[in-house]
Each structure stands twice: as structure tokens, then as C-alpha cells.
Amino acid sequence: MVEKTYKVPDVSCEHCVAAIRGELEKISGVDQVVVDIASKRVTVRHDGTVTEEQITAGLDEAGYEIAN
Fold first, then answer.
1. What's the angle, vertex CA 28, arms to CA 23 and CA 34, rounded to 5?
2. For the chain, what percent of residues have pLDDT higher than 90?
3. Which domains does the chain have, with CATH numbers?
4. In sequence order, what are the residues at sequence separation of 6 or more whose Cβ sits closer than 8 angstroms to the Cβ of residue 61?
């Protein structure tokens, strides 16, 4: 399993958590999505076949962007 954490500054409530988890969990190969409102971080665990582009697209679809 591969685990990567992303800074997502617009995460602020449970609605954000649900939207992000809903989109990222649709991606084939994603095992777990943890959204931490306090730290504004999203941790994605997957089987190694998921690309950064897929995660970025999923976040975009949910209405959020990864901070640079």
C-alpha cells in the first residue's frame, strides 16, 4: 500500500469531508481516505496504481485544490 498526504486549505467542515471522501473513494485502487479538518490534510491510501492526476481530479470534482 502507498500512503500520501495532501494539504487542502479549504477543508473546513463535515460537508467537506463527505465530499472529498465521496469522490476519492470512487477511484479504483483507493483503499482509505482520511480527511483531517484541523490540519486541513487529506491522506489517501491506495494500492500503488492510483496516479497523482487521478487524486487531483477527484479533489477538483469535489470542489477542492491541493496547496502547492
1. 50
2. 99
3. 2-62 (3.30.70.100)
4. 23
